[in-house]
Amino acid sequence: MSETIENSFMKSMFSGEIREDLIFPYPKIPDDTKETVKMILDSLGKFAKDQFKSKEWDEKGEMPREIVNHLAEIGLMGLAVPEEHGGIGLPQKGYARVMQELAVLDSSVGVTAGAHQSIGYKALLLFGTEEQKKKYLPRLASGELIACYCLTEPGSGSDAASIKTEATLSADGKHYIIKGNKLWITNGGIANFFTVFAKTKVTEKGEVKEKVSCFMVEGPQAEISVGAKEDKLGIRASWTNAIHFDGAKVPIENVLGGIGYGFKLAMGVLNHGRLGLAAGSVGGSKNCIKYSIQHANERVQFKKKIGEFGLIQEKIARMTINTYAAESLVYMTTHLIDRKDVDYSVESAIAKVFATEVLWECVDENIQIWGGNGFMREYPFERWMRDARINRIFEGTNEILRAFIALSGMQGPGQALAGLADAIMHPLKGLGPVTDFVSKKIQQNVFGASMNKAHPALKKYASFVEEYVVEFASQVETLLRRHGKQIHLKQFAQKRIADIAIDLYAMSCMMSRITAEIESRGVEKCELEIAIAEAFCMKAHRRIRSNFKAIDRNEDEHMKLIANKMYELGDYPWDFLN
Ligand SMILES: Cc1cc2nc3c(=O)[nH]c(=O)nc-3n(C[C@H](O)[C@H](O)[C@H](O)COP(=O)(O)OP(=O)(O)OC[C@H]3O[C@@H](n4cnc5c(N)ncnc54)[C@H](O)[C@@H]3O)c2cc1C
Fold first, then answer.
1. Do residues 560 and 466 both lie within one domain?
2. Residues 477-520: pLDDT tens digits?
3. Is 555 a catalytic residue?
4. What is the CATH number of the domain that holds 502?
5. Which helix H or strand E contains 37, and what residues bound it?
6. What per-residue confidence (pLDDT) applies to 2?
7. Where is the domain boundary, 93, 118, 141?
């Protein structure tokens, strides 16, 4: 088993293990961080109350540039920058909590601050040398430099490795010269610090290869031009622009992480940065719940408050359960990041997918609960819906992330099976993998997976997790044996595996969080949380069972046939008139 699997809660789950030590006890926000976050939220709240004009900005499609300066003045642009480099030095837990609030106060402002620090200068923060950090972080934290993350291009979106922008070494070997077009870059219109991903030539074993590298490019430069601000569906006041690099100069000291390592950096930044989006989505969901409850309690129809009707109760309860699950897994993941000794890539992808989909559900149901009023521009709800839509698209679409969750999780069991096959075919090499595999199987079959740290009041539902983790590993193995390396082409199966993984992570995080709540406040006072956990687990139980069943019995071939025929037809061919 590889080191990464041993140090990842979710990757271990794909092998049938529950690494309780990684998720129990549920993390707490340290006292000093709590105080700092409260102070920031206080200043932010006052600033927003005085100066945020969300409706007007949305209509115009812009906000004043000074808003960004004010954010920087109250420390909002250097939240994660260490104090020695002029920032506030918040751990990921604290950073996420601030982003949660900012997204509620105004999504466009949230995206602007997020693009600067969740992704814009994150490569420097995570992978820069001390010298590079010393040079740029103080200016980034103060807002003198505004950062953006330049990966996407006209021909390269999800397939980020296919970028065409090139960086070539200058004749004197002192600079890289960057040429290429980047598209839809958040903060593009105000940035003067560009984290740019470009292809470079690398010689490996005598062979010249093209590999992605990461550069910090300072602007303004005559060779950098910025396109017009995009006119968007949502987050309309944020700056989204194309950026054209026509020979922009970058000193060689501004390469991040070494030539040829850029793709790894790009993905590392997103794994880390996604938590900002996920936390913002939790904030948005909570806000929807607040407004939905208000209307459910006030609006009277058929001589009753609409909140008394079962169909409305179901909505409020579902929004609450799913938001609680999202919050539980988002903050658990921030803790895994803060630990710095575990692989959190699958968990962070799950947090982004789950929290952004819960937000979508909440903005939709909030409009439904508000009825016709929900549709009127007099209220902010339709804007919340437009603003929320982007979250399922950027920083990795939810489709790409589902494929990533499944394939990244299956890598460990896949390697174990390949090692096993190799050992059986070549016994002289040693039967280590066979012995490991067999002993692990025996352990799983005899002892199962255990979640002993969950409070006894949650036992029944913790046992759902225990039972499903073992079945999950066995289904993963079945799929790997059936498809071998072709599994990367089997997206119908990947979606099921990802959805099961999402449910298992959500349930595990809730078990941990509610155990901590019970230990601190006692079972009686946690009646609501226990009901939330039970309801989520019962629903997850039905989803997981249905996904397991569909691994063998499904309509996938029909779906493929229908899609392919429709591509041939090019349009929906039926009409009641004909
Ligand atoms: C408002 C906004 C702000 C943005 N900010 C930035 C930024 O700051 N920096 C930056 O670099 N980029 C940014 N982007 C770009 C964003 O990250 C991309 O739009 C996103 O990665 C998707 O790429 P695409 O739009 O080209 O879609 P495509 O990759 O063309 O995808 C189209 C559809 O096909 C699906 N799809 C694609 N490949 C597969 C596959 N292999 N399997 C299954 N389904 C697949 C996708 O999920 C999607 O549904 C921004 C975009 C927007 C709209």
1. yes
2. 999 999 998 999 999 999 999 999 999 999 999 999 999 999 99
3. no
4. 1.20.140.10
5. helix 31-51
6. 44
7. 141
SS3 419: helix
| CA distance linking residue 444 with residue 142, whole number of Å | 53
Does residue 240's CB lie within 6 angstroms of at least one atom of ligand 1? yes
CA–centroid distance, residue 157 to ligand 1 (Å): 5
CATH code, domain carrying 157: 2.40.110.10
Same domain, 454 and 555: yes
CA 370 to chain centre: 29
Catalytic pick from 230, 327, 365, 395? 395
Residue 418: predicted pLDDT: 78
The residue to which tokens 């979106």 are assigned: 157
Does the C-beta of 15 come closer than 6 Å to ligand 1?
Answer: no
Tokens of 181: 């077009």
Q: What residue numbers bound the domain in which 445 lies? A: 400-565
pTM flag (> 0.85): yes
Instruction: Convert the pLDDT of each residue in 234-291 to its tens digit.
Output: 999 999 999 999 999 999 999 999 999 999 999 999 999 999 999 999 999 999 999 9
Q: Kind and range of the H or E element at 225? A: strand 224-226
Question: 199 has which bridge partners?
Answer: 166, 212
Tell me, using a 6 A CB cutoff, whether residue 270 lines ligand 1. Answer: no
User: Could you tell me the distance, in angstroms and rounded to a whole number, from the CA of residue 577 to the centre of ligand 1?
Assistant: 38
